[in-house]
Amino acid sequence: MYLSKEYKAGIFEEFAGSAVNTGSTEGQVALFTKRIAHLTEHLKKNRKDFNTQRSLQMLVGKRRSLLAYLYKKDINRYRAIIKGLGLRDIIK
């Protein structure tokens, strides 16, 4: 698999605070962002892979809902994760 245990632990260490804090919103958003980037590259090469396209759309929706939750819960954490991952501000 393209995301090894060590790689995931590094993502959670960087964004969630510790490698074992896998349930944090920031860690989940960071992991979804890495997976979205991987699937986007795959779809650039394989345009007609509709199963991957649907998976990508579902991941984007999950990330968006987590970001909306974080925006309502704590706007400073939301702004920090947006800046850290280089995402656009989707909540207007």
UniProtKB/TrEMBL annotation:
Record's superkingdom? Bacteria
Q: Which GO terms describe its molecular function?
A: rRNA binding; structural constituent of ribosome
Q: Name one GO biological process term.
A: translation
Sorted alphabetically, the keyword list is:
Ribonucleoprotein, Ribosomal protein, RNA-binding, rRNA-binding
Signal peptide residues are none
Q: Which InterPro entries match?
A: Ribosomal_uS15, Ribosomal_uS15_bac-type, uS15_NS1_RNA-bd_sf
Cellular component terms per the entry's GO annotation: cytosolic small ribosomal subunit
Pfam annotation, one family: Ribosomal_S15
**Which PROSITE patterns does the UniProt record give?**
RIBOSOMAL_S15 (PS00362)
Family statement:
Belongs to the universal ribosomal protein uS15 family.
Reported function: One of the primary rRNA binding proteins, it binds directly to 16S rRNA where it helps nucleate assembly of the platform of the 30S subunit by binding and bridging several RNA helices of the 16S rRNA.
Oligomeric form and interacting partners: Part of the 30S ribosomal subunit. Forms a bridge to the 50S subunit in the 70S ribosome, contacting the 23S rRNA.
Protein name (database record): Small ribosomal subunit protein uS15
Q: Which organism is it from?
A: Sphingobacterium alkalisoli
